[in-house]
Please model this.
Amino acid sequence: MCEVVHMKQIKHCSTRRNPYCKLDSAASNSPFHHENELAYQKWKTHKLKDYPTSISQLVVPLNDPKALTVQEYQQIKDCLLKTNMVIYDIGRDIQEDKSIPEQLGIQLGIHSLDRNECADDDGFTSIQVVDDGLHAIYIPYSEKGINWHTDGYYNRLSEQIYSMILHCVRPAPEGGENQLWDPEIIYMMLRDKNPDYIKALMEPDAMTIPKNVLNGQLVRPDRSGPVFMITDEGRLHMRYTARARNVIWKEDSLTQEAQQTLRALLNSDSDYLFQGRLEAGQGLVCNNVLHTRTAFKDDKDNPRLLYRGRYFDKIMF
Model:
Protein backbone atom coordinates (compact mmCIF):
# COMPACT_ATOMS: atom_id res chain seq x y z
CA MET A 1 0.00 0.00 0.00
CA CYS A 2 1.31 3.46 -0.91
CA GLU A 3 2.10 5.81 1.94
CA VAL A 4 -0.03 8.95 1.66
CA VAL A 5 1.10 12.45 2.62
CA HIS A 6 -0.04 13.46 6.10
CA MET A 7 -1.57 16.93 6.14
CA LYS A 8 0.58 18.11 9.07
CA GLN A 9 3.59 17.98 6.77
CA ILE A 10 2.24 20.94 4.82
CA LYS A 11 3.33 24.44 5.72
CA HIS A 12 0.59 26.97 5.04
CA CYS A 13 1.64 30.52 4.24
CA SER A 14 -0.46 33.55 3.40
CA THR A 15 1.41 36.63 2.17
CA ARG A 16 -1.52 39.01 1.91
CA ARG A 17 -0.43 41.30 4.73
CA ASN A 18 2.84 42.52 3.22
CA PRO A 19 2.18 43.59 -0.38
CA TYR A 20 5.64 44.85 -1.26
CA CYS A 21 9.21 45.22 -0.07
CA LYS A 22 9.88 47.24 3.10
CA LEU A 23 13.48 47.99 4.00
CA ASP A 24 12.83 47.56 7.73
CA SER A 25 11.59 43.99 7.32
CA ALA A 26 13.16 40.62 6.59
CA ALA A 27 13.11 41.70 2.94
CA SER A 28 16.37 43.58 3.43
CA ASN A 29 18.10 40.23 4.12
CA SER A 30 16.58 38.55 1.08
CA PRO A 31 18.78 37.66 -1.92
CA PHE A 32 16.18 39.50 -3.99
CA HIS A 33 16.95 42.84 -2.35
CA HIS A 34 18.90 44.78 -4.97
CA GLU A 35 21.65 45.76 -2.49
CA ASN A 36 22.22 42.29 -1.03
CA GLU A 37 24.84 41.12 -3.52
CA LEU A 38 26.49 38.39 -1.42
CA ALA A 39 23.19 36.62 -0.71
CA TYR A 40 22.13 37.07 -4.32
CA GLN A 41 25.26 35.40 -5.72
CA LYS A 42 24.89 32.49 -3.31
CA TRP A 43 21.22 32.10 -4.25
CA LYS A 44 22.02 32.32 -7.97
CA THR A 45 24.59 29.52 -7.80
CA HIS A 46 22.09 27.27 -6.04
CA LYS A 47 19.26 28.26 -8.38
CA LEU A 48 21.10 27.40 -11.59
CA LYS A 49 22.56 24.12 -10.34
CA ASP A 50 20.71 21.32 -12.16
CA TYR A 51 18.01 23.70 -13.38
CA PRO A 52 15.72 21.89 -15.89
CA THR A 53 16.16 22.70 -19.56
CA SER A 54 13.19 20.72 -20.91
CA ILE A 55 9.50 20.93 -20.04
CA SER A 56 9.46 17.14 -19.75
CA GLN A 57 11.58 17.52 -16.60
CA LEU A 58 8.68 19.38 -14.97
CA VAL A 59 6.21 16.51 -15.35
CA VAL A 60 5.25 14.42 -12.31
CA PRO A 61 2.93 11.43 -12.91
CA LEU A 62 0.19 11.03 -10.29
CA ASN A 63 -1.83 7.94 -9.53
CA ASP A 64 -4.49 9.72 -7.48
CA PRO A 65 -4.20 13.54 -7.28
CA LYS A 66 -6.62 13.56 -4.34
CA ALA A 67 -4.30 11.38 -2.26
CA LEU A 68 -0.65 12.07 -3.04
CA THR A 69 1.89 9.49 -1.99
CA VAL A 70 4.98 10.63 -0.11
CA GLN A 71 7.07 10.07 -3.25
CA GLU A 72 4.69 12.08 -5.45
CA TYR A 73 4.58 14.89 -2.92
CA GLN A 74 8.39 14.98 -2.74
CA GLN A 75 8.68 15.14 -6.53
CA ILE A 76 6.22 18.02 -6.66
CA LYS A 77 8.03 19.78 -3.84
CA ASP A 78 11.46 19.41 -5.46
CA CYS A 79 10.22 20.75 -8.79
CA LEU A 80 8.40 23.70 -7.22
CA LEU A 81 11.40 24.62 -5.09
CA LYS A 82 13.63 24.66 -8.15
CA THR A 83 11.41 26.23 -10.83
CA ASN A 84 8.28 27.55 -9.04
CA MET A 85 6.18 25.29 -11.27
CA VAL A 86 5.32 21.65 -11.88
CA ILE A 87 3.10 19.82 -14.36
CA TYR A 88 1.15 16.87 -13.01
CA ASP A 89 -0.09 14.08 -15.24
CA ILE A 90 -2.87 11.73 -14.19
CA GLY A 91 -2.18 9.67 -17.30
CA ARG A 92 -5.74 9.37 -18.51
CA ASP A 93 -8.71 11.39 -19.68
CA ILE A 94 -10.96 12.45 -16.84
CA GLN A 95 -14.44 13.77 -16.31
CA GLU A 96 -15.30 17.34 -15.38
CA ASP A 97 -14.23 17.15 -11.75
CA LYS A 98 -13.16 20.33 -9.95
CA SER A 99 -12.38 18.37 -6.81
CA ILE A 100 -9.13 17.26 -8.49
CA PRO A 101 -7.43 20.71 -8.47
CA GLU A 102 -9.21 21.60 -5.22
CA GLN A 103 -7.90 18.57 -3.30
CA LEU A 104 -4.46 18.87 -4.85
CA GLY A 105 -4.25 22.48 -3.70
CA ILE A 106 -5.29 21.56 -0.17
CA GLN A 107 -2.52 18.95 0.01
CA LEU A 108 -0.01 21.62 -1.05
CA GLY A 109 -1.21 24.02 1.62
CA ILE A 110 -3.14 26.54 -0.49
CA HIS A 111 -6.71 27.33 0.49
CA SER A 112 -7.58 31.01 -0.08
CA LEU A 113 -9.18 31.15 -3.52
CA ASP A 114 -9.63 34.47 -5.30
CA ARG A 115 -13.38 34.43 -5.82
CA ASN A 116 -13.28 37.08 -8.53
CA GLU A 117 -16.20 38.24 -10.65
CA CYS A 118 -15.52 35.68 -13.37
CA ALA A 119 -15.10 32.72 -11.02
CA ASP A 120 -17.72 30.02 -10.64
CA ASP A 121 -19.70 29.70 -7.40
CA ASP A 122 -17.07 27.34 -5.93
CA GLY A 123 -14.25 29.84 -6.50
CA PHE A 124 -12.69 28.00 -9.44
CA THR A 125 -13.00 29.44 -12.95
CA SER A 126 -14.07 27.44 -16.00
CA ILE A 127 -11.81 28.65 -18.81
CA GLN A 128 -13.76 28.11 -22.03
CA VAL A 129 -15.01 30.09 -25.00
CA VAL A 130 -17.98 32.25 -24.01
CA ASP A 131 -19.94 34.22 -26.62
CA ASP A 132 -22.08 36.38 -24.36
CA GLY A 133 -22.33 37.81 -20.86
CA LEU A 134 -19.56 39.19 -18.65
CA HIS A 135 -16.96 36.60 -19.65
CA ALA A 136 -17.29 37.36 -23.37
CA ILE A 137 -15.52 40.74 -23.08
CA TYR A 138 -12.33 39.19 -21.66
CA ILE A 139 -9.68 37.53 -23.86
CA PRO A 140 -9.19 34.35 -21.75
CA TYR A 141 -12.73 33.32 -22.69
CA SER A 142 -12.07 33.65 -26.42
CA GLU A 143 -9.93 31.81 -28.96
CA LYS A 144 -7.39 34.65 -29.02
CA GLY A 145 -3.82 34.41 -27.82
CA ILE A 146 -2.69 35.99 -24.55
CA ASN A 147 0.64 37.79 -24.12
CA TRP A 148 3.06 37.48 -21.18
CA HIS A 149 1.51 38.09 -17.78
CA THR A 150 1.17 36.88 -14.24
CA ASP A 151 -2.36 36.27 -13.02
CA GLY A 152 -4.13 39.00 -11.06
CA TYR A 153 -1.67 41.78 -11.98
CA TYR A 154 -4.63 44.18 -11.71
CA ASN A 155 -5.52 43.12 -8.15
CA ARG A 156 -4.91 45.41 -5.21
CA LEU A 157 -1.53 44.82 -3.55
CA SER A 158 -3.15 43.29 -0.48
CA GLU A 159 -4.82 40.65 -2.68
CA GLN A 160 -2.05 39.46 -4.95
CA ILE A 161 -2.27 36.04 -6.59
CA TYR A 162 0.66 34.06 -5.23
CA SER A 163 -0.16 30.63 -6.62
CA MET A 164 -2.31 29.03 -9.28
CA ILE A 165 -3.58 25.66 -10.49
CA LEU A 166 -4.60 25.21 -14.13
CA HIS A 167 -6.25 21.85 -14.75
CA CYS A 168 -7.02 20.61 -18.27
CA VAL A 169 -10.25 18.70 -18.87
CA ARG A 170 -10.22 19.04 -22.66
CA PRO A 171 -7.61 20.77 -24.82
CA ALA A 172 -8.48 22.49 -28.08
CA PRO A 173 -8.05 20.31 -31.18
CA GLU A 174 -5.56 22.89 -32.46
CA GLY A 175 -3.48 25.51 -30.63
CA GLY A 176 -3.68 26.68 -27.03
CA GLU A 177 -0.02 26.13 -26.16
CA ASN A 178 1.58 27.85 -23.19
CA GLN A 179 4.99 29.41 -22.69
CA LEU A 180 6.30 29.53 -19.13
CA TRP A 181 9.01 31.59 -17.43
CA ASP A 182 10.10 31.20 -13.83
CA PRO A 183 9.96 34.80 -12.45
CA GLU A 184 13.12 34.18 -10.42
CA ILE A 185 15.05 33.39 -13.61
CA ILE A 186 13.76 36.53 -15.32
CA TYR A 187 14.68 38.53 -12.21
CA MET A 188 18.18 37.05 -12.35
CA MET A 189 18.66 37.84 -16.04
CA LEU A 190 17.43 41.40 -15.57
CA ARG A 191 19.54 42.01 -12.46
CA ASP A 192 22.66 40.69 -14.18
CA LYS A 193 22.13 43.22 -16.95
CA ASN A 194 21.69 46.13 -14.56
CA PRO A 195 20.84 45.97 -10.81
CA ASP A 196 19.26 49.41 -11.11
CA TYR A 197 16.53 47.83 -13.25
CA ILE A 198 15.45 45.85 -10.21
CA LYS A 199 15.43 48.95 -8.03
CA ALA A 200 13.27 50.79 -10.56
CA LEU A 201 10.80 47.93 -10.94
CA MET A 202 10.41 47.65 -7.16
CA GLU A 203 9.11 51.20 -6.90
CA PRO A 204 5.47 51.35 -5.71
CA ASP A 205 4.39 53.29 -8.81
CA ALA A 206 6.40 51.36 -11.44
CA MET A 207 3.34 49.93 -13.22
CA THR A 208 -0.24 51.20 -13.12
CA ILE A 209 -3.29 49.39 -14.46
CA PRO A 210 -5.94 51.99 -15.30
CA LYS A 211 -9.46 51.74 -13.98
CA ASN A 212 -11.96 49.39 -15.59
CA VAL A 213 -15.37 50.85 -16.40
CA LEU A 214 -18.19 48.72 -17.83
CA ASN A 215 -21.51 50.21 -18.91
CA GLY A 216 -20.75 53.36 -17.00
CA GLN A 217 -20.01 51.48 -13.76
CA LEU A 218 -16.60 51.44 -12.07
CA VAL A 219 -15.49 47.80 -11.85
CA ARG A 220 -11.95 48.51 -10.64
CA PRO A 221 -10.08 51.75 -9.84
CA ASP A 222 -6.54 52.54 -10.97
CA ARG A 223 -4.11 50.05 -9.46
CA SER A 224 -0.46 51.03 -9.07
CA GLY A 225 2.33 48.88 -7.71
CA PRO A 226 5.78 47.42 -8.23
CA VAL A 227 6.67 44.68 -10.70
CA PHE A 228 8.97 42.82 -8.29
CA MET A 229 8.02 42.45 -4.62
CA ILE A 230 9.62 40.72 -1.66
CA THR A 231 7.33 38.91 0.76
CA ASP A 232 7.63 38.73 4.54
CA GLU A 233 9.46 35.43 4.10
CA GLY A 234 12.03 37.02 1.77
CA ARG A 235 10.58 35.31 -1.32
CA LEU A 236 10.13 36.96 -4.71
CA HIS A 237 6.73 37.81 -6.18
CA MET A 238 6.14 39.29 -9.63
CA ARG A 239 3.23 41.39 -10.89
CA TYR A 240 3.38 41.95 -14.65
CA THR A 241 1.60 42.24 -17.97
CA ALA A 242 3.13 42.75 -21.43
CA ARG A 243 -0.03 44.41 -22.73
CA ALA A 244 0.81 47.55 -24.71
CA ARG A 245 -2.60 49.11 -24.07
CA ASN A 246 -4.23 49.85 -20.71
CA VAL A 247 -0.89 49.82 -18.89
CA ILE A 248 0.89 52.94 -17.64
CA TRP A 249 4.58 52.67 -16.91
CA LYS A 250 6.37 55.22 -14.76
CA GLU A 251 7.77 57.81 -17.12
CA ASP A 252 11.35 58.12 -15.81
CA SER A 253 14.04 56.88 -18.19
CA LEU A 254 15.31 54.06 -15.97
CA THR A 255 11.87 52.48 -15.54
CA GLN A 256 11.20 52.76 -19.26
CA GLU A 257 14.55 51.13 -20.07
CA ALA A 258 13.95 48.41 -17.47
CA GLN A 259 10.49 47.47 -18.77
CA GLN A 260 11.71 47.43 -22.37
CA THR A 261 14.63 45.17 -21.41
CA LEU A 262 12.23 42.92 -19.48
CA ARG A 263 9.96 42.62 -22.49
CA ALA A 264 12.92 41.72 -24.71
CA LEU A 265 14.08 39.04 -22.27
CA LEU A 266 10.65 37.46 -22.15
CA ASN A 267 10.61 37.16 -25.93
CA SER A 268 14.18 35.86 -26.21
CA ASP A 269 15.21 32.28 -26.90
CA SER A 270 16.54 30.52 -23.82
CA ASP A 271 16.99 27.05 -22.34
CA TYR A 272 15.08 28.38 -19.31
CA LEU A 273 11.94 29.08 -21.37
CA PHE A 274 9.44 26.21 -21.30
CA GLN A 275 6.78 25.63 -23.93
CA GLY A 276 4.07 23.01 -24.27
CA ARG A 277 0.37 22.26 -24.10
CA LEU A 278 -1.65 20.73 -21.32
CA GLU A 279 -3.52 17.62 -22.42
CA ALA A 280 -6.56 16.03 -20.77
CA GLY A 281 -5.70 14.96 -17.23
CA GLN A 282 -2.68 17.26 -16.95
CA GLY A 283 -2.34 20.42 -14.92
CA LEU A 284 0.03 23.23 -14.01
CA VAL A 285 0.71 24.04 -10.37
CA CYS A 286 2.82 27.14 -9.84
CA ASN A 287 3.72 30.14 -7.74
CA ASN A 288 2.11 32.39 -10.36
CA VAL A 289 4.80 32.09 -13.01
CA LEU A 290 4.88 34.20 -16.15
CA HIS A 291 2.87 32.58 -18.93
CA THR A 292 1.31 33.06 -22.35
CA ARG A 293 -1.32 31.24 -24.40
CA THR A 294 -1.36 30.91 -28.16
CA ALA A 295 -4.57 31.31 -30.14
CA PHE A 296 -6.54 28.12 -30.70
CA LYS A 297 -9.36 26.69 -32.77
CA ASP A 298 -12.22 25.41 -30.67
CA ASP A 299 -14.57 22.50 -31.36
CA LYS A 300 -18.15 23.37 -30.38
CA ASP A 301 -19.04 19.68 -30.08
CA ASN A 302 -16.10 19.03 -27.77
CA PRO A 303 -15.07 22.46 -26.47
CA ARG A 304 -11.81 23.32 -24.77
CA LEU A 305 -12.19 23.39 -20.98
CA LEU A 306 -9.73 24.09 -18.20
CA TYR A 307 -10.30 24.80 -14.51
CA ARG A 308 -8.27 27.58 -12.94
CA GLY A 309 -7.81 28.23 -9.25
CA ARG A 310 -6.13 31.48 -8.20
CA TYR A 311 -4.89 31.63 -4.62
CA PHE A 312 -3.85 34.34 -2.19
CA ASP A 313 -1.40 31.79 -0.69
CA LYS A 314 2.11 31.01 -1.85
CA ILE A 315 3.10 27.34 -1.96
CA MET A 316 5.73 27.02 0.76
CA PHE A 317 7.65 24.01 2.08
Remarks:
- Residues 6-24 have pLDDT under 50 and may be disordered.
- The two ends are 25 Å apart (CA to CA).
- The longest strand covers residues 163-170.
- The chain has one domain: 13-311.
